[in-house]
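User: Fold both of these, please.

Assistant: Here is the first one.
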Amino acid sequence: MKRCAVLLFTMVLLLAGCARQAPETASAASPSPVAPVLVGSTSDLTVQVLAELYVQALESKNRAARIVAVNDDSNAQVSRLMADEVDVVPAFAWSAAQALQVDTQDPQSLVSDLAAALDGEAAVLQPSKVDRRWRYVSRSVTSLLDLSAKTTVVAPERWRAAPDGPSGLAAIYQAKPAVTVLADANQRLARVKTGAIGVFDGTEPQVTDAGLKVLADPKTMIVSDPQIALLRIQRAEDDTVLGVIQQLHAVLDNTAVIGIRKRAATIGVPAAVTEWLKAHPLT
């Protein structure tokens, strides 16, 4: 009799409602709903936009998803992925490689080098066309060759430790300009309009301000920082999650992110993302 009960329970699970439902007991409880996809989001405004895009795109495919706050540091993000506390985090390949001390020199192999370094810890999804590389902008100066000790550069704190920041300017362009750190991008833009050189990442809307020129980099100092996704290993076999992120990465670029960020300044990130996805629905 016990063997028959086990077989009957198995058939109920396999045939769903085709067989008569057994009386509700502890052993015949309904299966648990699929856990929501946990999307990590940092203090970075572009990452917040990307995280919201992941969540809303997944929800459009009937997959529950929600945002979880994570530390800006890539080491902490990987630790939370490995602890199953988050499923996916939008990230940037060069920034992550620097934080994780990945040995990579060739921009062409940057993403594959990062993936190899994280093998067994987190999966690295192929990049979108969003690139957070630094943009040096000015109203009058046209090239990094023209920087001098009399030049004032206004930049975010993160730039100071970057290899294509002050150390790169000194080593490659023999330039040691005065540096003022300003976290607020609008304050940096105001200083640029009074003659300073401004440093912005490529997804900050201020780089598109009328009258600004992006300085030429003839010695190729500035490093590409393409947007990727760090994925919990167990989610690497989730076709819906992979499909949604890959579709987004195929269409996202700096213009799209800047457009969402500009709109978000008025109506907020969730509403701005909703508008963008309505205009660019997933298939």
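And the second sequence with its predicted structure:
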Amino acid sequence: MGSKIGVEYERLTCKPDGSITNEGVLLVKHPYKEAKYVDEGSQAQFEWNSQPHRRIKDLTDEYLRQEDALADLCAEYGVFGLPASENGAGERGRINLHEKSRASAYRAIFGEGTPEKLFPWAGIHCHIDANQPRLVEQFNALTALALVSAAFSSTSTINYEGKNGINCQRQKALQKDVFAKIPEERGYIGSKDELVARDVRRWENWKNAYVDAGLEAAEFAHKFKLDNTGYADIRHRPEIGSGTFELRVYDSAPADILMGIAALIQGFNDRILDQNIPVTIARKDDDYLFHGRIVVLPNWKTLQSLSELQIKSGLEDERIRDYLGQIVEFAGCQLDRQDAHYLKPLEAMIDSGENTSTQLTAHLQMQGCSAKEEGRYKPEALKTANRFIRYKQQEAVERLRHAA
């Protein structure tokens, strides 16, 4: 029958000139019945949560209805929804943190300035049904998928300070910088108990740091639960439906890429589960195989290497394109023709070796914008970057409408 998949899609409110503004909170509070959005960490952000769907076409149809409603709301405030993280092009400098966020807790645990490092990032979170009989194999397979396929979504080559230098600043910040005091436990698991124990350790470590800062354990327990503490690459969410895995590695990106990633995850996951394909982990470095008879995941050393490579250079390296080419082909064999075509933007990126971040850097160079003089882009260049992402989003929405 196949799994259900749903998405959380975070965006920023942006003025036509490309400056980020704080109207996101107004969209969330607006009584308009045709569109409902959720608070995020800053007042510029808003999040759309889809319903779960078995078909990517149905997910796309729901998204497009939301897009029509969003256009009406945005017109009221003179903004548009930008699928990207903050790059420093705020209307009044930096965006404002949301008063309802857990900013004070992050400061207590990780130090001053932590919310300012965490909340500018906007992402895509994909939920897919957890399969209890094969939970461990499913988690490991999704880990091998997510940590490299994140290259498809990268839009954050410029960070919130206007600096660039790598293809995906968001993944680097969340994996290595923001939570460095209590690093995430990452990698494959050998049992469900191991995954639960990992979540418990994280929660306990965070609680202890909160208490060490002179605050109450009961207050921490009110704000944080096992499944919403930290920033794991994949969260197990047993309380959602009959249980989901939430893939959290993806940047917010134009809508056709959003749907492509959803199709990739669903096709990859369902082919393994529906066809009862065994999943194992390679013993040798640089070894992997995605085949109808067996799936051999790269060992953790190889997967880490591939993940770090795509964070640095996106899809430019042939090793990334080979790996993702195998995965896209494997997933496409599971999808019917109506849903398989949503993979086309991903296939085009593999062919070209370019994702949105790569294209954005080239666009800024063509416009004569450089970050070399002061180590960061100037405000007008950052606005130019946001206008480019807006253009990519407009193209994406039109493609999805045409396909529908």
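The mean pLDDT is 94.
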